[in-house]
Amino acid sequence: MVWLEGQSKRIVPEAADSLQMSQETGAVPLGSVMLGSTGQPGMGCPLEHMHYDRKQLWRGPEVSPEANIPTDLLSLDHSFGYDCRRRANLQLLEESTLTFIAGNFLVFLDVCARKQRYISSCSGEGIGAIMVHPSRHFLAVAEKGNRPNIVVYEFPSLQPFRILRGGTAWVYTTLAFDHEGLLLASVGGAPDYMLTLWAWREERVLLRCKAASQDVYRISFSSDSPAQLTTSGAGHIKFWKMASSFTGLKLQGQLGRFGRTTPTDIEGYVEFPDGKVLSGSEWGNMLLWEGALIKVEICRRGGRPCHNGAIRQFVLDEGEILTVGIDGAIRAWHFESVDGADSSDGSDLFELEPMNEVLVGRGVCLVSMVKGTTQGSSIWFAQDSGGAVWKLDLSFSNMTRDPEAILTFHSGPIVSMDVSRTSHLMATSALDRSVRVFDLLAQRELICSRFRQNATTVTWEPRGGQLLAVGFEDGLLRLLEFFLPPEEGGYSPDGAQLQLRQAVKPHWGPVSAIAFHSSGRLLATGSKDGTVFFFVVGDPYEAIGLITVPGPVCSLQWAPPSQGRKALLILCENGHVVEVGAPEPGSRAPRRHSYELEDLPRMHFHFHSVKSHIRRDEEVTRRKAEKQKRRVEEEQQLKESLEEKEPWGEEEDLPPLYIPDPPSPLLCGFYSGPGSFWLSMGGFDAGFLYHCRFSSQQEQAAERRHDEPFAVVPLGHGEDDAVQCVSISCGGQLLLCGMQTGRLRAYPLQLEDPHLCSLRASWVLGVHYSQNGTVRAIRCSHDDRFVLTVGDDGNIFSFSLLAPWGGLGIPQDQETASPPPPLPRQKVAQDIEDPQAYSLETARQCTELERLAQEAEHRKVELRRELVELQKRFRELQWRTRELPSHMERTLDQSFQEEVKQMTAQRVAETQRKLAWEREWYRLSLKKLQDRLGDPLESDTINVVAFHSPHRVSTCRILTPSPEQQIHGTGTGPEKRLPGTETEPGGVAAPVQAALVTETLPKHGGLQPQQTGRGRLAARQAQKLQKASEKVNRAKAKIGQRRKEWANLLASKPSEAAEDPQDVQAIQHAQENMRDFKLKTADDFRVPEHWKMSTDRKRAQLVTLEEEIHWRKTEMNSQVVGLRDSKLQLLSQLRIQMQQLQVVQVQLPPALCIAPPTILGPLPEETPKQKLQPSPATLLRLQSLHARRAPPGGEREELGLLELLEHAGGEQAEHDNMPISECPPCQSIQLEGHAFTELEEEIRRVEEIKLLHLQDSLLAQMSQDISDFDTRLKLLRHGKLKLDVKLKLWDLQHITLYQELLLLRDFETREDRLQEALRWRQEEWWLLTSKLEETRQQLQVKQQEVAHLQEQEKVLNATFQALLGPNNKWGPFLTKVFRKKVKRVKKREKTGEIEEQGDSAEESEGESDWDEDEDSESGSVDDTTCPPRHNPAT
After folding, report:
1. Whole-prediction pTM
2. pLDDT in tens, 1300-1333
3. Exposed (0-12), middle (13-18) or buried (19+): which is 643, by Cβ within 10 Å?
4. Are 737 and 709 in contact (CB under 8 A)?
């Protein structure tokens, strides 16, 4: 059995009755625990001496009913592992007895004798937490599972003493006894996090409360106040008090507030006698809590943390505070200094140095420690998450012993394990970068070797059992030789060594599988990089080659020798399975540059999910069975009774077919026969073993294949539990499966059963921790004596296999260990330490690349040599050509010229073809740019500059009219212009224009007439006379002007009865704007329709204003453009006159030549469109500019087209702006040394006078034209300024009108709503009024009818009384008949309402009831018969 053998006590009858009563009623008959009691609990209680039967508590392995398997098939032999990363997983029961949790077992280790005892988990799901009683006579073990229990064992008998039930939903995380051992506190994990206080001896719950909403790491009672507890965990610490209330005892918790301190996970803490609590932090400082607040944070001097990392435990021991950190240090602090710590300088830090410290070791990560049981002992046992248990002497004296690692283990998940084929040796590798070898018979670890990288897989060589092949995560394969030195009578296990024999790197990814062929001549390695490498086993191992597979390799298996073939089964994680024939040991890769083997035969299989099909088939079968059962039951019911058969309900839809995406991972597999194999899948397809075979159709690519298994075997109840690893015992009698939940499954096998029909019988036992204890490897020893398992929880278990399934049954004390024979010491091989080193394939490829590079370099040298020879020959030909005679014509060959022309044409066509897209792109870009910038503009800015003044005038920039303006028309006639905007044709008001003309014209008035040609004397006399006449005319005009001014002044004198124009204007303005006042004063005032303003009218005003602005801008632009055109014409005329003047001045002597005025050509701003319209001449200048800007080195500076055009345009503008007056100097034609006659002299003088007159005329005309143009420009500029002022005012008016339009829109919306509401109310009022009038008329008619009926009733009564007569004995009867109500049958309407019918029915029933009552009152006289002696007519 897995649990410890021994005798157990039975429950006495009295205790059993008491226990049953307490469980049923929830009350404890005797022995109630009282807080603060000093006596021993349970005195006189019948439960005190009760023990449970251990066999009844332990659930044991699950054995299927049809299986003929004993429950003690496997019994735990030894535990080589330790879950060292679990919190508080080390407790001390005696001075030399340690206990800790290993998977689903609780291990009791005698440190001195190195012997182990075990207790299995009662629930089979695992153990959550353990805690030792202060007396060390009891041990509380908290289980894991559905509603787990807490079992309190008695020590050292290990009998179940008490069972505490219902404390949490799934798992316990921590336990704690109070210091007197009366109470037990437990905290559960997710999902309830329940805190429970137990009177554990009575198995009674005292208090229960939810501890937190996050994981709780620790709970403890205060040593000085039993009613106070403290819990800590993820991001919190909580302080609890047990308080009495009128409803009983309650727990009150107060959450600690971190304040300005960063919230942290709190692993350890300690309570002080005065109520303070000292806790740790993730960054290594200590936090002193007072109440629920942090009083101070304690650090070392200089701000250094107390520990380099989290503090996992605090211990208050003999006036010292011991802190245990993950940095491997244990420090002792002065208690009073810590208790009185306070921040004095305003900061939250208090600096303090430890009294003593011990650094356990490098790389040590301490989790917890427990003190020895001897009084005054300074020996502590510490738990190291790095895989060790340390024995520490914390006396801090000169005699202090060094820390001693009494036990070492793997730390972290164990990923691989293998056993020797010839001895009881086991090798393991874990993610702690270590490889260990164990002796199963001696139950001890022989050697541990550490490396720089994690070892991912280990395999023993089948021959000899001395060589260990180890694969690493960097792709390295190391061959290690195991060596035991001999000694007298055997071997020395203390001197075991692992020597490196060879190191190769076949892969660049992690090595995931290693497999030796049964012959021992071939080795295959698989990797996560999707490659499989083959080696020839020898000294050294020689590489054969590699193959690539369609996925990461997870397992390799050679075909068993019984199949008689060499084939390797390769399993990939993504569901691909490949079978490849083994290469011959002497073969090599066919290519020099690669190790890849391409000629090996291959078979492919790609797993396709069928679990949803299986579930649907099961559902169909179940429904058929239910239908058949129901049909039989219905037939039976029909035979017994003739009751009507109930119809069957509609069937539910079948479960949908589901294919997981991404596909389920492939976990493991093994051969079942040639070409067939079994697979275990994870994820969605877990819970089955799938029997598959390779298809004969292998033409399809491996990635596109979808192969389905041909047989499926379920694994029992664990449908979602996947088989992680599989192993078959050496005798072939058992199939052992390691599950993802940490369970171990055993299935008996039958001979010649490839379909595994015997898997219906199973034996299941929980071995590893179910939460993180996935079984990574399971193996049987070479003699089937031991079954070994390793898991992710860091545990290694060795089980003894019961005969006849297992070994020979030889007692262990009669058999010694069988290690391999010693090997001769050889020189250690050279290791590969660089993790970035090349793999074999990469190294060969690099070697091949280097060889190719050398060949290429050699070819380059040869080509350079040939090139030097050709250059030498070319220079010789050049020299011979220069030596030829000069008269010999050197012509090229005609064929060569034709070839050059064709090549040129082809290049031109190719260039045009290449630039076609760019050309079209530029064309479309230019068009889009013109459309974008030109279309919105109706008129762009044009500047016109004067000749001899700085004045200039520009056009207005006009946008294209909006659609509304285009609908109303962009032009405005005189009838549409705004008031006060009439102007003269010149664009300015007439008075202003006259004033400007007066100011602009020269003071001598008018244009000077041209000279008559009579010489200078006659011209001067004429000028004098003209000036005199002008002076007289100006005097007369001045006198007349004064007379007119006096007349106007007298005419403008107001009369005596005249009113002030300002007052008149103010009155008129008041009359026009007093409408609001009228609305306020006159009750019956209604706003005239033409006074009302609507959005349409306001929009019309806006459009009118925009049209006016557009028309004014257009008019001004037309005047400016006309002035610009006249300037261009004037410039053309001036050029002609300048040419004439040059011709005249050539004939005059230089002394008589007059310099012409300087006139510039048209400016670019006057003709802006010409800037973007380059002419062919501009393009030619652009080409020349390109050529000039090219630097001498040949590298051309890249310039944009726009920059070049601007440069070219600037040169053109400079050329156009050259003064027109520049001309060559006058060169008079004179004959030197020739004497003129008097007649010739006279003729020369006459010609000179004519030329001077012509020169003066041309200059005067040019000056006059320029002066006239400048005057026109000045007048137009003045008008443009006035128009600009008006445009600004109109813009402001436009903004005002638009704002008024927005307000009108809002007001109209409101008015429309009000008008609509008013209309509805008026209609409603008229409707109610008409109804009221109609109702009044009907009321009057009804009143008249009522009065008429009352008169008729009176007449009838009088007539009846007259006919009845006095003292008639039938008077009452006849009166009743007279007054009887007569039922009148009304015609029912075809479409009557149901409610009206119901009301009429109720009324008729009421009337009938009333009539019956009257009948009952009147007796038995029939009112339908006439009394005797009366007239029937009456």
Report:
1. 0.61
2. 999 999 998 998 899 999 999 999 999 999 999 9
3. exposed
4. no
